[in-house]
Amino acid sequence: MKKNPKFETIAIKSTENSFENSRPVSTPIYLSSTYKRNNDASYNNDLIYSRSDNPNRNIIETAIAKLENGNYAFTFSSGMAAISAVFQTLKSGDHIILPDDCYYAVKKLMENILNRWNLSFDLVDMSNLESVKKAIKSNTALIWIETPSNPLLKISDIQEITKIAKTKNILCAVDNTWLTPVFQNPLQLGADFVMHSTTKYFGGHSDVLGGCVVVNDKILAEKIKDIQVLSGAVPAPFDCWLIGRGIQTLHLRITKQAKNASKLAKYLESHPKIEKVLYPGLKSHPQHTIAKKQQRNGFGAMISILIKGDEKETFTISTKLKYFTTATSLGGVESLIEHRKSVEGENSTTPINLLRISVGIEHIDDLIADWQQALSD
Ligand code: PLP
Description:
Aspartate Aminotransferase, domain 2; Aspartate Aminotransferase, domain 1; 13 helices
């Protein structure tokens, strides 16, 4: 090739990565969708194509597996994609037990989509072990646990439910989004799958969507990996990078958020305008002892409260708050508040006077003062 290459060719070759051996401290974002083969058609580092694997994804999958004390982690483009992946490991005709106040989109996924694959479900109060036992059918294949549940913050005893499940060869999955591995490791309590919406505390800044599934068992890992790669709901490299950055400060953020939540819950419980505070860290919470047993070092940073009043009064109070932004979602550094029933829609059984609070990292004195003024006449 003696001739000088033409403009178009120069444009391509001159912008090729020439920093392959650079050693940056902050992880670069690997946007490449495909990877160079060696002359013998082999690949370095098993990197072939970005749907199968990607360095940014690889970093967070390794990190999340370690943090959850699990053998394998697989990440997805949202928490719902991760949940779908777990359900896709089942076979047509299987039955699932769901918590009666599980994240509302899970129930919708079952009703609107997975019913076409002949998967059925029952909603059960999982804080009651007898109800769980009674709900088991001959075709029950999966018990889906959300603890604390969303939005009633009911606590399910993971160890006891997984014991019941094991005697019947039923798998157990735990949505650990609200507590994160900082406070709870469901695999150590007997669960087969741990799922996270990494959109929440892992990301931590309300700027990225993501999900993950963690397992110990090699066969389950192979199934989830197959679903991840073949269904293709994989996270983009930049999203993985953001979640990886979030992981670095996860412990600091959620520990501070949980401390704030605990103080705020105590304050709200003492206020005459509040009917009830649902927070597992309060002694008044019906499953406080179970929460203490299975959640290491903390009770999380989510609180639901019931206002003494109707829907209108509930809305009025929430809109008077200055440091709690009215928005759905949770787990970011900023405090959020939301009237859950209006998000969940017509069939929601959530009380009309319930407000769900995601407590952020602001100063607790300011957060309490804000509630003081919002609850004053
Ligand atoms: N699980 C829980 C407990 C959630 O709160 C959410 C979202 O709010 C999800 C799952 C779904 O996650 P995503 O919105 O990332 O799909």
